[in-house]
Design brief:
By secondary structure, the chain is an alpha/beta fold. Helix content is about 30%, strand content about 15%. The chain is built from six helices and four strands, in the order E-H-H-H-E-H-E-H-E-H. It has a four-stranded mixed β-sheet, with helices on both faces. The longest helix has 15 residues. It starts with 13 loop residues before the first strand and ends in a 15-residue tail after the last helix.
């Protein structure tokens, strides 16, 4: 609800930084017997998603995927803040997307004992027994505070600092 229609960002130095990873789409295509086409690799590679989206929206800032597992969205946010502060872009869309299309990764993680037997995350608890996978999308539109105030944007939060210690 940033109030910025996609066309209003066209041809602007807007960065798109997306936490993303393996979706299982390639496995789905293979099992369906779909032939390999010229667009197949672009649809299967997580790295291509942000770039295809930037192209579609005609954004002129950096377009980057981030895959650091569970921290991908936060690392994407950190990267977007760095890009804005350095002047590489005037604003950025940052966040993450995760889809669970194939059971291959789920089965592998279950066999490795990484998933919670109860299906519940208990972060930092002595009763923690693994994590729970889920899917969703969360994206934020970011710009410098002075620019947001000047433009009359709704401001929900101010990022005072970020860091990565992965």
């Amino acid at each position: 609800d940033s109030g910025h229609a996609p066309h209003s960002l066209s041809n602007e130095r807007v960065g798109l930084i997306v936490g993303t990873g393996y979706s299982g789409y390639g496995t789905l295509l293979e099992r369906a017997g779909t032939k390999v086409e010229g667009y197949s690799a672009a649809g299967m590679a997580a790295a291509m998603g942000p770039n295809r989206t930037s192209y579609f929206l005609n954004l002129r800032g950096p377009s980057e995927p981030v895959d650091t597992a569970c921290s991908s969205s936060l690392v994407a946010l950190h990267r977007a803040v760095q890009l804005i502060r350095s002047g590489e872009c005037t604003s950025a869309v940052a966040g993450g997307v995760n889809t669970l299309i194939s059971l291959d990764v789920q089965n592998s993680l279950a066999k490795a004992g990484m998933l919670s037997q109860e299906g519940r995350c208990k972060t930092f608890s002595s009763r923690a027994d693994g994590y729970v996978r889920s899917e969703g999308v969360g994206m934020l539109y970011l710009k410098k505070l002075a620019a947001a105030e000047r433009d009359g944007d709704s401001i929900y939060a101010v990022i005072k600092g970020s860091a990565v210690n992965h």
